[in-house]
Structure formats: structure tokens, C-alpha cells
Design brief:
The chain is mostly helical. The protein has 19 helices and no strands.
């Protein structure tokens, strides 16, 4: 209890809460097309490949918009950037509610709603910005647990779609977005860690080798999370014949674990080191994905997916314990860039799953791809570990102590 009080006193809890809420509701909107996929597919008679592409559009749109939103947040502040973003999301939801009557318009809606996925870097930097280095992992883990918003979408959207029609769900989501907007206006404060540079100064992160190591790593963890989250309802409905009414009940307990373990991953990374965590988790994801590729019976598959999501969530928390230690004054930019590439990687899953199903009659191809990526990332971290732990981060990926910083400065 004393540790929790110390943590809360070290930062600004209301801003952390607002960052969580903002990310949570944005995430619900971001995966809404995934929850609605079986209904949309039935309405427009989509092929497996069309369905996979439709699900990848919001992922890729959100990914591409993350870095621009991160740059905007450095100029106008993270709180203001979040409010601008949520206003645009409401416009996208209104389009879905009133205008969508074809597959092509679904794709347009996916592009607009994709901006909800751009909230990532801003939310994590806003939530963690008030907290000192030794608590960054936990604070960012709490803000990042807002990806639990996916549960809201997959659990409640399908029953609402059955009762009121799938287009009306987008109208209902407009009311949902007003909650974090009001809280953000009333409670959040801009953190003091924003560093003002020229645009060129911010863009330097694009060419840094360490940024691209994190980019590739985040393809596995966050890309895997958003990609599988989007595709789970389709996997259960098309792969195992689960009715649309109950597919969310199968998906939600699996998806929520990534949010729970994201916090745990941040805490473990603070305590034992983000690098150590990632070495273990990348191997675990690779092994579990290989097992999932056999398409086992539904209960076994559910357990495997449950474990995969646990690993992906912990990996997300571990990765973003390291990022603010590497870029102390421009974390919103760094997080947005890394989140952008990671989310783009998430588009691989629905596309690879859809193509695998259409041409080979099984979803195994998507799982095999993720096993290969997990194996590659394990070896990548082995390569960079020595350099990182002798320059900007401590043993195993922990934050440097004051004594260690002084020693390295002298050395």
C-alpha cells in the first residue's frame, strides 16, 4: 500500500486516469469494425480476402496517423491534441451511422476511424509524463491498459447490432466518445516534460537505429495485439462456427488479458528490466503461435490465444518502459513513431489470415508468420543487449540509478 501511495504522489493521478480513459474509448472505436465484421460481411457478401483487407484498413490508417499526431502534440500539447483527435473520431462515427451503404464506404469509414488508433503515443506520454523514471514503466503500463477498450467493442457491439442494427452501433459510439472528452477538459493537465524543438529536431528519431529496433519489436507485441483483436471475432465465427451473438463472449476474456498483463509487464520491466522481459516473451509468442497454427479444438485454441495475449500485453509494457529511458524529453514523438510501425505490422494478421483461408482453407498462415517474427525479434534483442546496457540503460534494461549515471558520465 505504501508503494502505491508513493507512486501516486510522485505524479498527477487525474491526468493518468484521463490518459487511460482516452486511450480506452479510442481503442474501443478503433476495433469496432472488427467486432462488426461478421455483420458487415453478411450485409455486403464479402470474400475472406475482402474481409481481411477491410479489417486492416483502420489498423493501417491509425498507424500512419500516429506520428503526425505525436508531432502535433509536441507543438500544441498532448491534452489539446487528444481533444482534436476525439473530435475527428466523432465525425467518423457519424459517417458510419448515416452514410455507409456499400463495401467501399466501409473502407472510407475505416480510414476515418483509424485516427482512434493514433491516440497511442499521445496517451502514453500524457499519462507517464508526470512520473519520474523509476515509475515510468508502471505509469505508462496503466495508461496503456486502455487497450482494454477492445473488450467494450467485442463484448457489447455484437448484441447491440443484433438488437438495433449494426449501423446504429456507430451512432451509439458517438455518446461513448463524449465521456473521455469531458474528463480530459475537466481533469487533465499538460505534463512539464515537453521539449520544444524544430520539426527537423523531432524528425531525427526517424533515422536512429534504436528507434527501429523498437519499431520491429513492437510489430510483434502491439501489432500482434491489434491484429489478433481485430480478427478474433472472425476467427471464432468462420473458423469454429461460433454464433455472432456469443463470439464476443469468447473474444473478450482473451483480449482483456493483454491490458492486465501490460501493467504487469511495465512493473516487471521496472523491477527486472525490459530487455530481460522481451527475450522471454518473444520466444513464448513464437512457440505458442506454432501450436495455434495446428488449429486445435476450440477450447485448446482459446487457452493458447489467452496465453499469447498475456505475452503480447506484457511485451507492450516492457517495450514502453524502455522508450522514455532512451528519449527522455521527446517521448511523445518516439512513442508515436514506434506505435506507428507496430500498428502497421498489425495489418499483416487480418490480411495473412484472410489470404491463408481463401487460398489454403486454413488460418494457419497468419500464426506461422507470427512465430517467425517472434523468433527473429528474440535474436535482434540478443544483438543489441550489450550495447544498450553499457550506454543508456542499466542491467537487463532497468533504469539507471544516480550512481550508475555518474559513473558512466565520468567513464
Amino acid at each position: 500500500m505504501a508503494g502505491i501511495k508513493t507512486f501516486l504522489k510522485s505524479g498527477h493521478p487525474p491526468t493518468l486516469f484521463c490518459a487511460f480513459l482516452y486511450f480506452d474509448f479510442c481503442f474501443a472505436v478503433w476495433v469496432l469494425n472488427g467486432a462488426m465484421a461478421p455483420f458487415i460481411s453478411e450485409a455486403f457478401q464479402l470474400s475472406a480476402a475482402q474481409k481481411g483487407f477491410m479489417l486492416s484498413v483502420p489498423i493501417m490508417s491509425g498507424a500512419l496517423l500516429r506520428f503526425p499526431l505525436g508531432v502535433l502534440s509536441q507543438y500544441i500539447g498532448r491534452k489539446n491534441a487528444a481533444l482534436v483527435e476525439m473530435s475527428v473520431i466523432i465525425i467518423g462515427l457519424a459517417w458510419g451511422y448515416m452514410m455507409v451503404d456499400s463495401y467501399e464506404k466501409v473502407l472510407v469509414m475505416g480510414i476515418i476511424l483509424g485516427i482512434a488508433g493514433a491516440s497511442f503515443g499521445v496517451a502514453l506520454s500524457l499519462g507517464g509524463g508526470w512520473f519520474p523514471p523509476q515509475y515510468k514503466g508502471l505509469a505508462i503500463g496503466i495508461a496503456g491498459a486502455g487497450n482494454s477498450g477492445a473488450v467494450i467493442a467485442v463484448l457489447f457491439a455484437p448484441p447491440l447490432a443484433i438488437a438495433y442494427g449494426w449501423q446504429n452501433v456507430y451512432g451509439m459510439a458517438i455518446l461513448l466518445m463524449l465521456v473521455p472528452m469531458i474528463c480530459m477538459i475537466a481533469l487533465a493537465k499538460e505534463p512539464p516534460d515537453r521539449e520544444k524543438k524544430s520539426l527537423g529536431g523531432y524528425l531525427k528519431v526517424l533515422v536512429e537505429k534504436d528507434a527501429w529496433v523498437f519499431n520491429i519489436s513492437y510489430i510483434l507485441t502491439f501489432g500482434g495485439y491489434i491484429g489478433f483483436t481485430m480478427f478474433l471475432p472472425t476467427l471464432f465465427a468462420d473458423g469454429y462456427g461460433i454464433p455472432k451473438k456469443t463470439m464476443g463472449q469468447w473474444s473478450a476474456p482473451i483480449i482483456v488479458m493483454a491490458s492486465v498483463t501490460r501493467i504487469a509487464g511495465g512493473w516487471f520491466a521496472d523491477k527486472y528490466g525490459g530487455l530481460n522481459n522481451m527475450l522471454v516473451l518473444s520466444v513464448a509468442v513464437a512457440i505458442l503461435s506454432l501450436i495455434a497454427a495446428t488449429m486445435p479444438p476450440i477450447w485448446i485454441m482459446a487457452i493458447i490465444l489467452f496465453l499469447i495475449f498475456c505475452c503480447l500485453g506484457a511485451g507492450n509494457g516492457s517495450t514502453f518502459q524502455l522508450v522514455p529511458l532512451r528519449w527522455t524529453a521527446s517521448s511523445a514523438i518516439a512513442m508515436s513513431l514506434i506505435g506507428e510501425i507496430g500498428a502497421l505490422g498489425g495489418g499483416l494478421i487480418p490480411n495473412s489470415m484472410g489470404l491463408s483461408k481463401q487460398y489454403y482453407g486454413t488460418f494457419a498462415g497468419g500464426f506461422l508468420l507470427w512465430a517467425a517474427i517472434g523468433s527473429g525479434i528474440f535474436f535482434m534483442y540478443l544483438v543489441v543487449k550489450k550495447r544498450w546496457t553499457t550506454t543508456w540503460v542499466g542491467k537487463g534494461g532497468k533504469a539507471l540509478t544516480a550512481e550508475e549515471k555518474l559513473h558512466r558520465k565520468i567513464a
